[in-house]
């Protein structure tokens, strides 16, 4: 089946989406090959064109996290949380980043923030993870 699009704005949107997918695929290949810096550059280029691309932001934040560039990772994950406050994987990413920096109180605050914002059914898995984490923290006296 062939679809003909007459609306130029729709055509441009499809081209941007296709390029975004290609950039994300290429960035993943670069990360898998150990070329994290090149992947970050590609993701930053993509984000200039599509600043709210959550997949690109998550990949960029994860790349910063893995490179121990935790302040940059934190900024990216905070941006994602502003976009989607009840999204579990964004919250876990920020929690881990704060925890790795030794900021346990702020990490615990992220748990509380997420629990208040999250859809209890859709985010059951993340909530269960956080329940286990808070029990561990209580057992450790944190």
Q: Could you describe the 3D structure shown?
A:
By secondary structure, the protein is mainly α. The chain has one domain (about 10-140): Alpha Horseshoe (Serine Threonine Protein Phosphatase 5, Tetratricopeptide repeat), CATH 1.25.40.10. Helix content is about 75%, strand content about 0%. It contains seven helices and no strands. It has helices spanning about 10-30, 35-50, 55-65, 70-85, 90-100, 105-115, 125-140. α4 runs antiparallel to α5 (about 90-100). The longest helix is centred in the first third of the chain and has 25 residues, at about 10-30. The N and C termini lie far apart (about 60 Å). Mean pLDDT is about 90; it is low at about 1-5.
Which outline best applies? globular
- SSE topology string: HHHHHHH
CATH topology: Serine Threonine Protein Phosphatase 5, Tetratricopeptide repeat
Number of strands: 0
How much strand content do the residues show? under 5%
Name of the CATH superfamily: Tetratricopeptide repeat domain
For the biggest sheet, the summary is: none
Secondary-structure-based class equals mainly alpha
- The gyration radius over C-alpha positions equals 18 Å
Q: What is the architecture at the second tier of CATH?
A: Alpha Horseshoe
Share of helix, binned: over 70%
Average pLDDT for all residues = 90
The domain count comes to: 1
The CA-CA distance between the termini, in Å, is 60 Å
CATH top level is Mainly Alpha
What is the number of helical segments per DSSP (H or I, 4+ residues)?
Answer: 7
Could you list the spans in which at least 5 consecutive residues all have pLDDT below 50? Answer: 1-5
């Amino acid at each position: 089946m062939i679809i003909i699009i007459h609306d130029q704005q729709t055509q441009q949107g499809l081209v941007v989406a296709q390029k975004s997918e290609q950039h994300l695929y290429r960035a993943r290949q670069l990360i898998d090959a150990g070329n994290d810096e090149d992947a970050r550059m590609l993701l930053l280029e993509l984000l200039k064109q599509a600043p709210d691309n959550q997949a690109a932001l998550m990949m960029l934040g994860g790349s910063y996290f893995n490179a121990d560039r935790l302040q940059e990772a934190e900024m990216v994950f905070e941006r994602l949380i502003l976009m989607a406050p009840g999204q579990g994987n964004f919250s876990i990413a920020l929690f881990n980043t704060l925890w790795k920096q030794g900021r346990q109180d702020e990490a615990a605050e992220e748990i509380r923030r997420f629990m208040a914002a999250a859809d209890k059914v859709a985010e059951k898995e993340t909530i269960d993870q956080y329940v286990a984490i808070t029990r561990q923290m209580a057992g450790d006296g944190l």
